[in-house]
Amino acid sequence: MQPAEKLRHTLTQAIAKHASDVYFFPKFQGYEIVCHTVTGIEKMGELSCEQAEQLIAYVKYEANMSISERRRPQLGALHVRVDKVQVHLRLSTVGDFQDRESMVIRIIYALAEVSHAVRQNKQWPAIRGLTNSAGLVVLSGPMGSGKTTTIYQLAHERQTDSVVLSIEDPVEIEEPDFLQLQVNELAGMTYDALLKLALRHRPDVFIIGEIRDEQTARVAIKAALSGHLVLSTVHAQSALGVVGRLTQLGIAKNDLEQAIAGVCYQRLLPGRQQPVTIYDWLTREELFSEASPFFNGQQKKTQMTRRWHDALRVAVDDGSVAPEVAQRYQAG
Protein backbone atom coordinates (compact mmCIF):
# COMPACT_ATOMS: atom_id res chain seq x y z
CA MET A 1 0.00 0.00 0.00
CA GLN A 2 1.40 3.38 -1.05
CA PRO A 3 1.92 6.09 1.63
CA ALA A 4 -1.00 8.24 0.42
CA GLU A 5 -3.34 5.25 0.38
CA LYS A 6 -2.15 4.08 3.81
CA LEU A 7 -2.66 7.55 5.29
CA ARG A 8 -6.19 7.76 3.89
CA HIS A 9 -7.02 4.26 5.12
CA THR A 10 -5.71 5.04 8.63
CA LEU A 11 -7.58 8.35 8.83
CA THR A 12 -10.80 6.70 7.63
CA GLN A 13 -10.55 4.19 10.49
CA ALA A 14 -9.69 6.89 13.03
CA ILE A 15 -12.54 9.19 11.97
CA ALA A 16 -15.00 6.29 12.12
CA LYS A 17 -13.95 5.84 15.76
CA HIS A 18 -14.11 9.63 16.24
CA ALA A 19 -10.50 9.53 17.40
CA SER A 20 -8.82 12.76 18.44
CA ASP A 21 -5.25 11.68 17.72
CA VAL A 22 -3.36 9.07 15.66
CA TYR A 23 0.12 8.04 16.78
CA PHE A 24 2.93 6.45 14.75
CA PHE A 25 5.43 5.21 17.33
CA PRO A 26 8.67 3.23 16.82
CA LYS A 27 8.80 -0.06 18.70
CA PHE A 28 11.48 -2.74 19.15
CA GLN A 29 10.75 -3.95 15.63
CA GLY A 30 8.86 -1.69 13.24
CA TYR A 31 6.18 0.85 14.12
CA GLU A 32 2.82 0.71 15.88
CA ILE A 33 -0.22 2.78 14.89
CA VAL A 34 -2.62 3.66 17.72
CA CYS A 35 -5.42 6.18 18.13
CA HIS A 36 -6.92 8.00 21.10
CA THR A 37 -10.69 7.69 21.53
CA VAL A 38 -13.17 8.35 24.34
CA THR A 39 -12.49 4.85 25.69
CA GLY A 40 -8.72 5.27 25.66
CA ILE A 41 -5.89 4.08 23.42
CA GLU A 42 -6.75 1.60 20.64
CA LYS A 43 -4.25 -0.22 18.46
CA MET A 44 -4.89 0.23 14.73
CA GLY A 45 -2.05 -1.65 13.09
CA GLU A 46 1.66 -2.03 12.50
CA LEU A 47 4.16 -0.87 9.88
CA SER A 48 7.67 -1.90 9.00
CA CYS A 49 10.35 0.74 9.61
CA GLU A 50 10.59 1.36 5.86
CA GLN A 51 6.81 1.78 5.47
CA ALA A 52 6.62 4.15 8.45
CA GLU A 53 9.53 6.26 7.22
CA GLN A 54 7.91 6.57 3.79
CA LEU A 55 4.55 7.51 5.32
CA ILE A 56 6.03 10.12 7.66
CA ALA A 57 8.10 11.59 4.81
CA TYR A 58 4.99 11.78 2.61
CA VAL A 59 2.96 13.59 5.29
CA LYS A 60 5.80 16.03 5.97
CA TYR A 61 6.16 16.76 2.25
CA GLU A 62 2.44 17.45 1.90
CA ALA A 63 2.57 19.76 4.94
CA ASN A 64 5.68 21.66 3.74
CA MET A 65 7.75 20.38 6.66
CA SER A 66 11.45 19.58 6.35
CA ILE A 67 11.83 15.97 5.21
CA SER A 68 15.58 15.88 5.89
CA GLU A 69 15.19 16.97 9.54
CA ARG A 70 14.38 13.79 11.46
CA ARG A 71 15.60 14.59 14.98
CA ARG A 72 14.33 18.03 15.98
CA PRO A 73 10.66 18.67 16.76
CA GLN A 74 8.58 19.96 13.86
CA LEU A 75 5.00 21.17 13.70
CA GLY A 76 2.81 21.29 10.63
CA ALA A 77 -0.77 21.36 9.36
CA LEU A 78 -2.70 19.77 6.51
CA HIS A 79 -6.25 19.84 5.14
CA VAL A 80 -7.63 16.57 3.78
CA ARG A 81 -11.01 15.20 2.70
CA VAL A 82 -11.75 11.70 3.97
CA ASP A 83 -15.00 10.01 2.93
CA LYS A 84 -16.66 13.38 2.21
CA VAL A 85 -15.57 14.76 5.61
CA GLN A 86 -13.26 17.80 5.51
CA VAL A 87 -10.75 17.60 8.37
CA HIS A 88 -7.81 19.68 9.43
CA LEU A 89 -4.75 17.77 10.63
CA ARG A 90 -2.27 19.20 13.11
CA LEU A 91 1.07 17.39 12.86
CA SER A 92 3.95 16.87 15.26
CA THR A 93 7.14 14.92 14.55
CA VAL A 94 10.30 14.30 16.58
CA GLY A 95 13.15 11.80 16.64
CA ASP A 96 14.01 9.63 19.63
CA PHE A 97 17.49 8.93 21.03
CA GLN A 98 18.03 6.32 18.31
CA ASP A 99 17.06 8.83 15.58
CA ARG A 100 13.78 7.01 14.92
CA GLU A 101 11.12 9.52 14.00
CA SER A 102 7.65 9.45 15.55
CA MET A 103 4.55 11.33 14.39
CA VAL A 104 1.29 12.39 16.02
CA ILE A 105 -1.67 13.55 13.95
CA ARG A 106 -4.33 15.56 15.78
CA ILE A 107 -7.65 15.45 13.92
CA ILE A 108 -9.49 18.78 14.03
CA TYR A 109 -13.13 18.20 13.14
CA ALA A 110 -15.60 20.82 11.93
CA LEU A 111 -18.08 21.81 14.64
CA ALA A 112 -20.99 20.14 12.82
CA GLU A 113 -19.12 16.82 13.00
CA VAL A 114 -18.62 16.84 16.78
CA SER A 115 -21.49 18.79 18.36
CA HIS A 116 -24.42 16.40 17.78
CA ALA A 117 -24.09 14.62 21.14
CA VAL A 118 -23.84 17.97 22.94
CA ARG A 119 -26.98 19.36 21.28
CA GLN A 120 -28.95 16.22 22.16
CA ASN A 121 -27.87 16.30 25.82
CA LYS A 122 -30.78 16.74 28.29
CA GLN A 123 -28.64 19.06 30.43
CA TRP A 124 -27.86 21.33 27.51
CA PRO A 125 -30.55 24.01 28.15
CA ALA A 126 -29.11 24.61 31.63
CA ILE A 127 -25.53 24.82 30.33
CA ARG A 128 -26.67 27.21 27.60
CA GLY A 129 -28.35 29.29 30.30
CA LEU A 130 -24.94 30.11 31.79
CA THR A 131 -24.30 32.32 28.74
CA ASN A 132 -27.43 34.47 29.08
CA SER A 133 -25.43 37.38 30.49
CA ALA A 134 -21.98 38.85 29.96
CA GLY A 135 -19.16 37.42 32.03
CA LEU A 136 -16.74 34.51 32.16
CA VAL A 137 -17.99 30.94 31.74
CA VAL A 138 -15.24 28.41 32.46
CA LEU A 139 -15.42 24.71 31.63
CA SER A 140 -13.22 22.13 33.35
CA GLY A 141 -12.55 18.46 32.89
CA PRO A 142 -9.74 16.14 31.86
CA MET A 143 -8.13 16.19 28.45
CA GLY A 144 -10.41 14.71 25.80
CA SER A 145 -13.62 15.35 27.73
CA GLY A 146 -15.10 17.60 25.03
CA LYS A 147 -14.64 21.00 26.68
CA THR A 148 -13.71 22.77 23.44
CA THR A 149 -16.69 21.23 21.64
CA THR A 150 -18.99 22.56 24.35
CA ILE A 151 -17.68 26.13 24.29
CA TYR A 152 -17.80 26.19 20.49
CA GLN A 153 -21.40 24.99 20.48
CA LEU A 154 -22.31 27.61 23.11
CA ALA A 155 -20.73 30.30 20.93
CA HIS A 156 -22.33 28.91 17.77
CA GLU A 157 -25.80 29.22 19.28
CA ARG A 158 -25.08 32.88 20.00
CA GLN A 159 -23.53 33.46 16.58
CA THR A 160 -26.76 34.35 14.75
CA ASP A 161 -26.88 37.73 16.49
CA SER A 162 -23.29 38.02 17.76
CA VAL A 163 -19.73 38.39 16.49
CA VAL A 164 -17.60 35.53 17.82
CA LEU A 165 -13.81 35.74 18.04
CA SER A 166 -11.51 33.02 19.36
CA ILE A 167 -7.95 33.25 20.67
CA GLU A 168 -6.44 29.79 20.91
CA ASP A 169 -3.10 28.04 21.24
CA PRO A 170 -3.67 26.21 18.94
CA VAL A 171 -7.08 26.24 17.20
CA GLU A 172 -8.92 23.02 18.11
CA ILE A 173 -12.07 23.14 15.96
CA GLU A 174 -12.65 24.78 12.60
CA GLU A 175 -15.65 27.11 12.43
CA PRO A 176 -15.84 29.37 9.35
CA ASP A 177 -18.42 31.66 10.97
CA PHE A 178 -15.96 32.66 13.74
CA LEU A 179 -12.88 34.86 13.50
CA GLN A 180 -10.24 32.43 14.79
CA LEU A 181 -6.86 33.77 15.92
CA GLN A 182 -3.96 31.50 16.86
CA VAL A 183 -1.23 32.40 19.36
CA ASN A 184 2.27 32.64 17.86
CA GLU A 185 4.80 33.82 20.43
CA LEU A 186 7.64 34.07 17.88
CA ALA A 187 5.58 36.43 15.72
CA GLY A 188 4.60 38.56 18.73
CA MET A 189 1.03 37.23 18.67
CA THR A 190 0.69 36.57 22.40
CA TYR A 191 -2.61 36.15 24.25
CA ASP A 192 -2.35 39.71 25.55
CA ALA A 193 -1.46 41.20 22.15
CA LEU A 194 -4.29 39.32 20.43
CA LEU A 195 -6.78 40.41 23.11
CA LYS A 196 -5.90 44.07 22.50
CA LEU A 197 -6.40 43.49 18.78
CA ALA A 198 -9.61 41.56 19.40
CA LEU A 199 -11.15 44.37 21.46
CA ARG A 200 -10.79 46.67 18.45
CA HIS A 201 -12.85 44.19 16.44
CA ARG A 202 -15.65 44.65 19.01
CA PRO A 203 -16.79 41.00 19.25
CA ASP A 204 -19.75 40.03 21.40
CA VAL A 205 -18.33 36.63 22.36
CA PHE A 206 -14.72 35.69 23.11
CA ILE A 207 -13.37 32.16 23.10
CA ILE A 208 -10.07 31.89 24.97
CA GLY A 209 -8.96 28.32 24.33
CA GLU A 210 -7.40 27.41 27.67
CA ILE A 211 -6.49 29.24 30.86
CA ARG A 212 -3.11 27.66 31.57
CA ASP A 213 -1.18 30.38 33.42
CA GLU A 214 -1.55 33.72 35.19
CA GLN A 215 -1.25 35.68 31.94
CA THR A 216 -4.14 33.93 30.20
CA ALA A 217 -6.22 34.03 33.40
CA ARG A 218 -5.84 37.80 33.57
CA VAL A 219 -6.65 38.11 29.85
CA ALA A 220 -9.91 36.17 30.40
CA ILE A 221 -10.88 38.22 33.46
CA LYS A 222 -10.04 41.48 31.69
CA ALA A 223 -12.25 40.61 28.72
CA ALA A 224 -15.14 39.51 30.97
CA LEU A 225 -14.96 42.68 33.07
CA SER A 226 -15.11 44.75 29.87
CA GLY A 227 -18.68 43.51 29.31
CA HIS A 228 -18.13 40.58 26.94
CA LEU A 229 -19.24 36.98 27.17
CA VAL A 230 -16.02 34.99 27.54
CA LEU A 231 -15.88 31.20 27.15
CA SER A 232 -12.78 29.34 28.26
CA THR A 233 -11.47 26.10 29.74
CA VAL A 234 -9.19 25.13 32.61
CA HIS A 235 -7.97 21.89 34.12
CA ALA A 236 -9.80 21.31 37.42
CA GLN A 237 -11.36 18.27 39.10
CA SER A 238 -14.83 19.73 39.66
CA ALA A 239 -16.99 22.75 38.91
CA LEU A 240 -16.16 24.30 42.28
CA GLY A 241 -12.48 23.51 41.71
CA VAL A 242 -12.45 26.04 38.86
CA VAL A 243 -12.57 28.92 41.34
CA GLY A 244 -9.73 27.41 43.35
CA ARG A 245 -7.65 26.96 40.21
CA LEU A 246 -8.15 30.59 39.13
CA THR A 247 -7.24 31.72 42.63
CA GLN A 248 -4.03 29.66 42.41
CA LEU A 249 -3.25 31.50 39.18
CA GLY A 250 -3.30 34.81 41.05
CA ILE A 251 -6.82 36.13 40.37
CA ALA A 252 -8.28 38.07 43.31
CA LYS A 253 -11.58 36.88 44.77
CA ASN A 254 -13.08 40.32 44.12
CA ASP A 255 -12.35 40.00 40.39
CA LEU A 256 -13.75 36.47 40.30
CA GLU A 257 -17.01 37.56 41.92
CA GLN A 258 -17.45 40.32 39.34
CA ALA A 259 -16.30 38.38 36.28
CA ILE A 260 -17.60 34.80 36.58
CA ALA A 261 -21.04 34.05 35.14
CA GLY A 262 -20.81 30.30 35.73
CA VAL A 263 -18.49 27.30 35.94
CA CYS A 264 -18.94 23.81 34.59
CA TYR A 265 -17.28 20.39 34.83
CA GLN A 266 -17.79 17.71 32.20
CA ARG A 267 -16.77 14.17 31.31
CA LEU A 268 -17.22 12.12 28.17
CA LEU A 269 -18.44 8.67 29.25
CA PRO A 270 -18.36 5.50 27.16
CA GLY A 271 -21.99 4.94 26.14
CA ARG A 272 -23.79 1.85 24.92
CA GLN A 273 -24.10 3.29 21.41
CA GLN A 274 -22.10 6.54 21.47
CA PRO A 275 -20.11 8.65 23.96
CA VAL A 276 -22.29 10.49 26.49
CA THR A 277 -21.44 13.92 27.91
CA ILE A 278 -22.29 14.49 31.59
CA TYR A 279 -22.19 17.99 33.09
CA ASP A 280 -22.00 19.50 36.55
CA TRP A 281 -22.29 23.27 36.94
CA LEU A 282 -22.63 26.21 39.31
CA THR A 283 -24.01 29.67 38.64
CA ARG A 284 -22.52 32.94 39.89
CA GLU A 285 -25.17 33.11 42.63
CA GLU A 286 -24.37 29.57 43.82
CA LEU A 287 -20.67 30.34 43.92
CA PHE A 288 -20.68 33.70 45.67
CA SER A 289 -23.91 34.00 47.68
CA GLU A 290 -23.14 33.93 51.41
CA ALA A 291 -26.08 31.56 51.92
CA SER A 292 -24.62 29.02 49.49
CA PRO A 293 -22.84 25.89 50.82
CA PHE A 294 -20.34 26.35 48.02
CA PHE A 295 -19.44 29.82 49.27
CA ASN A 296 -18.86 28.97 52.92
CA GLY A 297 -16.91 25.76 52.37
CA GLN A 298 -19.57 23.21 53.40
CA GLN A 299 -18.90 21.36 50.12
CA LYS A 300 -15.44 20.09 49.21
CA LYS A 301 -13.86 21.56 46.10
CA THR A 302 -13.49 18.10 44.54
CA GLN A 303 -17.06 17.00 45.32
CA MET A 304 -19.71 16.65 42.62
CA THR A 305 -23.08 18.35 43.12
CA ARG A 306 -26.45 16.62 43.08
CA ARG A 307 -26.83 17.56 39.41
CA TRP A 308 -23.95 15.26 38.49
CA HIS A 309 -25.42 12.26 40.29
CA ASP A 310 -28.89 12.96 38.90
CA ALA A 311 -27.47 13.05 35.36
CA LEU A 312 -25.69 9.72 35.86
CA ARG A 313 -28.90 8.16 37.15
CA VAL A 314 -30.89 9.44 34.16
CA ALA A 315 -28.22 8.13 31.75
CA VAL A 316 -28.53 4.66 33.33
CA ASP A 317 -32.34 4.76 33.37
CA ASP A 318 -32.61 5.67 29.68
CA GLY A 319 -30.10 3.00 28.73
CA SER A 320 -27.43 5.28 27.27
CA VAL A 321 -24.83 4.33 29.92
CA ALA A 322 -24.23 0.99 31.63
CA PRO A 323 -24.64 0.94 35.45
CA GLU A 324 -21.02 -0.10 36.00
CA VAL A 325 -19.81 2.86 33.90
CA ALA A 326 -21.97 5.30 35.90
CA GLN A 327 -20.60 3.84 39.13
CA ARG A 328 -17.04 4.37 37.92
CA TYR A 329 -17.70 8.08 37.34
CA GLN A 330 -19.57 8.86 40.59
CA ALA A 331 -16.63 10.94 41.84
CA GLY A 332 -16.29 12.83 38.57
UniProtKB/TrEMBL annotation:
Domain Bacterial type II secretion system protein E: 7-270
Keywords associated with the record: ATP-binding, Nucleotide-binding
Coiled coil: none
A single MF term (Gene Ontology): ATP hydrolysis activity
Any one cellular-component term (Gene Ontology): plasma membrane
InterPro entries: ATPase_ComGA, P-loop_NTPase, T2SS/T4SS_dom
Family matches, as Gene3D superfamilies: 3.30.450.90, P-loop containing nucleotide triphosphate hydrolases
Similarity field: Belongs to the GSP E family.
Protein name: Competence protein ComGA
Provenance organism: Furfurilactobacillus rossiae
